[in-house]
Each structure stands twice: as C-alpha cells, then as structure tokens.
C-alpha cells in the first residue's frame, strides 16, 4: 500500500501532535500509525496580503507523520472558511437553506483556496500515494489536483449530512460541485440517507460517480477507560457532590444551530412544566463551547441560548436549586468522560447531524452495571445504529419532555438491557475500523 496523505482544512496544532485532541486527529490515529504519512492543510494562522507572495509550506515531522501546513490571508480565511464553508455549505448541508448567506465573491475565494491547496500539495506528492481529502471545505480539491496531473487514487469523506438534490440545487454552482466529484475514486458519507441523496444528485446531474457509506465511530476502549478513571478525579467527584443525590442530565455540543439547543431547552422547560415532581430534584448540565463565534448566526444563537437559560433558571430555580448549569467554554476531554459516566441521562437532540460522536461517547462511558439512558434525535446520523436509545423528534418539546421523564424513572433492568443492545455497535464500528475500511477501499482502486 502507498503512503497515506490526509488533507483537511485544519491540521492538528503543534501542541496536539504527540497526543491527538481533535475529533479528526483521534479518528485517524490508527490509520496514521503505520508507514510514512503526510497530513496537509491550513495552519490556523492568518497573514496579511503583502506576506502572501512569500507564503511557504511549513513542515514538521512527528514520529512517522509529516505535518505540512500553509497560512491563509485574512481575505482567504473570511471568504473560504467563514463565508463559503461555514455560512453557505454548512447550513445548506444541514437542510437550512434559509440561513445561507450566498455571495458569488466568496465562491471564487473558496475555489481559489482549493486551487492553492492543490498547488502547494503537488510538490509534496509521490506517485504511489493514497490521498484522502476530508469534508465540505475541500469538495473541489480532488478536481484541482487532477487538473495538475495527479493520477494517484483520491478519496473524499464528507463528515456532515448531504441533503436531497431538490435542496442542494439551491446552491449556485451546485451542478459544477457535483461534476467535480468525478475526480474522486472513493466517496464516503456517514449514512445510507446521505449516500442516497448524493447518488440521486449525481444521476440528476449526469455525473458518473458513486457515494458509499462509511459510518464513523470513536475509540470506545480508551474512552471507556478514561471514563472509569474519571471516577477518581477531584473535579468529577466535586460535580458528583454538588448534585447531592439528584440525577444528572448532560448535554455536550459545540454551540451550533445544527445541534438543536434552543429546541432542547424548550423540551427541558416543558418537562419542568409538565412533570412538577422533578422540580428541584434534577440537574441539567449543558456544555456548549462557543464555536465559529465570529459568524453572525452563531452570535445570535448564543444570545438566544443565554436568554433562554436565564429565563428557565429565573422562573423555575430556587435559592438552593439551579435547573440548568450552562458552560460556553470547553471542558477537558478526560473530565468530560468522567462527567458522562456520572450522568443519568444524555440529551443528544440535533436537528441534523452527520453522525454525532457524543452519543457514542456517552454509551462507551457508562458503567455496564448501572448505565444511564441516551435520549437521541432521529436526525443524528447515529440514530439508525442506535435504535435502542430513546429516540425523539427534536422539534417536539413534549416528546423531549416525555423522554426525559421516562429516562429518569426507568428501572435499572431496562437501562441495562438497552445499554447492552447499544454497546456492541459502538465497539464494532470504531474510528479505527472506519479509517481502515475507507483506506482499504481506496487502496483497491486502480485508476483507468
Ligand atoms: C462533525 C459532524 C460527525 C464537545 N464539547 C467538548 C468536546 N466536544 C467533543 C465531543 C465530540 C466532538 O467534540 C464533537 O463531535 P460530534 O460528532 O458530536 O460533532 P461535530 O463537532 O459537529 O463533528 C458530526 C463528526 O464531524 C465526525 O465525523 O459525527 O456529525 O458535525 O468528540 O466530545 N470535547 C472537549 N470539551 C468540550 O467541551 N474536550
């Protein structure tokens, strides 16, 4: 098998290269552990327009992995990342065409940055490389590499949903985007629905390409160990003591409108209204680290959440009880694992989600003898694999309220039975197996 070349918008920061922290880095750990590998992408640094001419690729070797990064100018960061990727493709792929802020200029910057990636990557490539491109920031990169004469196998994985063509065609230049996908030898999506949507789009656009399903997972073994070890951490014990015997409901999401946070709070409020017996007797901890804070839509979302939490705490709280504990900063991963294990219920209610790893992490973190209950949205990519969770429609506040009540009073025998049905899939489809399946499929490709 050839050398693995991974391309993603962001490459792990130097401090995270020994011990991967981010989702993609953790997911790729197995795949990157063998042979020589190259990881190419944006450094996370921005430069001014006049520094652009001398822009070079910086190279760093850590064990068998070469990290190659480039800086982006402020204008590139804005047009490529903030606007086209995060204010156009992200909402559209999450079925929110109404939130799209389309501007032709941003599309041009997006295409330019993809071409820049291709030009800077080209001299680093070797003939027997396997190239694996990640996510919506880089849809056209495969074609840009082909235009420069690259003939190696190139694969593409989309981490987020892909909507039906009737919606996707709202994207100006959408047909071109689909045509560019012909450059890829393997196209991976998270779920059957996503792959069907993309394949229907291909046939409508007359594009000869085929999307396949490669659901992503976590590293359940190490996460379960971390969660168990978490029991002995002072912070986890402090959280436990602060509950004073009350059950804990946990939510963990980047502060993103796809995660259904306002709807979830409405569900919790409805729960407090309809089941007064739980008032004063339960704690809901929502961890929602701010993400993409410079994009207007995300600022408005945060404002709305700040207000809703304040309102619920003001109306239902008491001098010795806060209904919602709400953090908008990240919690270190080892604590998070311990918090999940302590939590009696996890509320994972995205309006749309490619997969949702939080659902899998929560299951992995449980004590098999006394597991908690997962309340999961039908619209998470994880839902088809996790039908033994309490599945809810996140738009239906009453359904969330009923599921919360059911979860909190669920007998231990039922909790154990449900967990035992959820556990095998979380252990079977892992980050490692996902990467191996994808790379194995790509390695079998011989381009005509
Ligand atoms: C995209 C797709 C797909 C969250 N808060 C904290 C924290 N996290 C960690 C979680 C989890 C990860 O971030 C989030 O992963 P998700 O899968 O839930 O969601 P996205 O970030 O939107 O990821 C998604 C994924 O890509 C993979 O393909 O599943 O559908 O949208 O690992 O634990 N971690 C720490 N502190 C926090 O406060 N340490």
In summary, what is this structure?
It catalyses: D-glucose 6-phosphate + UDP-alpha-D-glucose = alpha,alpha-trehalose 6-phosphate + UDP + H(+). The chain is of the alpha/beta class and 448 residues long.
Architecture overview:
It is a single chain. This protein has two domains: 4-217 and 431-447, Rossmann fold; 220-428, Rossmann fold (3-Layer(aba) Sandwich). It has helices spanning 23-28, 74-93, 104-121, 141-147, 165-168, 174-180, 192-205, 220-230, 234-243, 261-274, 296-316, 333-342, 357-365, 397-409, 412-428, 431-443; strands spanning 4-10, 37-47, 58-62, 65-73, 130-134, 154-157, 186-189, 211-213, 248-252, 283-287, 324-327, 345-348, 373-377, 390-392. The strands form two sheets. An eight-stranded mixed beta sheet has the order 3-4-2-1-5-6-7-8, sandwiched between helices. Strands 11-10-9-12-13-14 form a six-stranded parallel beta sheet, with helices on both faces. The radius of gyration is 22 Å and the shape is globular. Helix 8 (220-230) crosses helix 12, helix 8 (220-230) packs across helix 13 and helix 9 (234-243) runs parallel beside helix 12. The chain is built from 16 helices and 14 strands. The longest helix is centred in the C-terminal third of the chain and has 21 residues, at 296-316. The protein is of the alpha/beta class. It is 43% helix and 17% strand. GDP-alpha-D-glucose binds next to helix 12 and helix 13.
């Amino acid at each position: 098998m050839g050398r693995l070349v991974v391309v993603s918008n962001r490459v792990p920061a130097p401090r995270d290269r020994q011990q991967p922290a981010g989702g993609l880095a953790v997911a790729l750990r197995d795949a990157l552990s063998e042979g020589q590998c190259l990881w190419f992408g944006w450094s996370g640094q921005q430069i001014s327009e006049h520094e652009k001419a001398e822009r070079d690729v910086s190279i760093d070797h850590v064990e068998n992995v070469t990290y190659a990064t480039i800086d982006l100018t402020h204008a590139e960061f804005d047009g490529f990342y903030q606007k086209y990727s995060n204010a156009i493709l992200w909402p559209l792929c999450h079925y929110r065409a109404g939130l799209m802020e389309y501007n032709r200029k941003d599309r041009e910057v997006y295409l330019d940055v993809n071409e820049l990636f291709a030009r800077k990557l080209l001299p680093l490539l070797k003939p027997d490389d396997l190239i694996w491109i990640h996510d919506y920031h880089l849809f056209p990169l495969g074609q840009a590499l082909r235009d420069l004469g690259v003939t190696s196998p190139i694969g593409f994985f989309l981490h987020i949903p892909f909507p039906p063509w009737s919606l996707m065609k709202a994207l100006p230049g959408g047909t071109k985007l689909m045509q560019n996908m012909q450059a890829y030898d393997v196209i991976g999506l998270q779920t059957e629905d996503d792959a069907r949507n993309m394949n229907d789009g291909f046939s409508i656009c007359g594009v000869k390409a085929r999307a396949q399903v490669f659901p992503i997972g976590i590293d359940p073994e190490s996460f379960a160990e971390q969660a168990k070890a978490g029991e002995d951490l002072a912070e986890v014990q402090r959280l436990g003591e602060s509950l004073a015997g009350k059950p804990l409901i946990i939510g963990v999401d980047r502060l993103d409108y796809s995660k259904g946070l306002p709807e979830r709070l409405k569900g919790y409020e409805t729960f407090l209204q309809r089941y007064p017996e739980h008032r004063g007797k339960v704690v809901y901890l929502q961890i929602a680290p701010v993400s993409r804070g410079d994009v207007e839509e995300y600022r408005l979302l945060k404002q709305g959440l700040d207000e809703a939490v304040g309102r619920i705490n003001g109306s239902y709280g008491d001098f010795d009880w806060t209904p919602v504990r709400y953090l908008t900063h990240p919690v270190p991963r080892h604590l998070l694992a311990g918090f999940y294990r302590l939590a009696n219920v996890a509320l994972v209610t995205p309006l749309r989600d490619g997969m949702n790893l939080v659902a899998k992490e929560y299951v992995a973190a449980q004590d098999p003898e006394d597991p908690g209950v997962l309340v999961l949205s039908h619209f998470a990519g994880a839902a088809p694999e996790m039908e033994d969770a309490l599945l809810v429609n996140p738009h239906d506040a009453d359904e969330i309220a009923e599921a919360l009540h059911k979860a909190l009073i669920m007998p231990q025998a039922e909790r154990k039975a449900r967990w035992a049905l959820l556990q095998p899939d979380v252990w079977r489809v892992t980050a490692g197996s996902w990467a191996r399946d994808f790379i194995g499929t790509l390695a079998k490709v011989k381009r005509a």
